Amino acid sequence: MAIKKYKPVTPGQRNKAISSFEEITAKKPYKKLLAPLKSTGGRNNTGQMTVRYRGGGHKRMYRLVDFVRNYDDVKATVLTIEYDPNRSARIALIQYEDGRKSYIIAANGLKVGQVVENGPQASPDLGNCLPLANIPVGTLVHAIELRPGQGAAMARSAGTYAQLAAREGNYAILRLPSGETRMVPVTCRATVGTVSNPDHNLESDGKAGRTRHQGRRPHNRGVVMNPHDHPMGGGEGRASGGHPRSRKGLPAKGYKTRNPKAVSNKFIIERRKK
Which of 46, 159, 170, 212 has the fewest beta carbons closer than 10 A? Predict the structure, then answer.
């Protein structure tokens, strides 16, 4: 999973560094596991723009990824490693012994032909999905559930992982990518290994056009706007804008936005590092 750097033969290739896609083994996705994905352009169901700087972009199809992985005690073989335009990680197409196929988040190092398994009886090998109660302490895991049967919610993006630090009673203690340490029920499932495409953070688009293909429009700063448009706008010359805040006036850069009465607070042992 190397990064391919380009020589500045054209202006768009200057500083361009993208994935070599050498681990990809299929050019086209499996049609039966595709679903249409409508582009919103940042608008809600009434047509109001709720997210700015969205729109355009290449048309995509959604890949139906199995985050629950509750098809137990049936071995599956990895058929392909594929690119997914909807996420930073790679996905793997697996086929169970009874012929059923599904997409899963590909673990880093997962190869075509490798056998993976789900359920409490599965061994803690790369790509296998099993309850945290059955995973050895110290193992690196990804695609972790927060509630049993909910489906993977944590550590799903490229290169991420959490470490199973300890087990106390009915809870497992996980050290998350953010530095946060939290408790998760031992009956929740996780996949052994780290997420694929770990070099994703080293990529550089090289030109604005590649960002537009991804559906992101030009973003302009609040300090260059008028006071009517943004709390940090206005002023003679290049004014600093005062206290950093969002367009709605919510303070930023250090202001805590987490609800102190959130139910999940009791599961967090140590907050993420600033």
Answer: 46
Is 0.70 topped by the overall pTM? yes
CATH number of the CATH domain containing 184: 2.30.30.30
How many angstroms from the chain centroid is the CA of residue 135?
A: 23
Distance CA 93, CA 82 (A): 7
Q: In what order do the strands lie in the sheet with 189-192?
A: 129-131, 189-192, 140-142, 162-168, 171-175, 181-185, 268-270
Task: Kindly report the backbone phi and psi dihedral angles of residue 153, in degrees, each rounded to the nearest multiple of 5, phi listed first.
Answer: -125, -30
Residue pair 152/67 in contact (Cβ under 8 Å)? The answer is: yes
Residue 46 lies in a domain: no
- What are the tens digits of pLDDT across the range 40-81? 999 999 999 999 999 999 999 999 999 999 999 999 999 999
Helix (H, G, I), strand (E, B) or coil at 63: strand
Residue 272 falls within a domain, yes or no? no
Contact criterion met (CB below 8 Å) for 78 and 86 = no
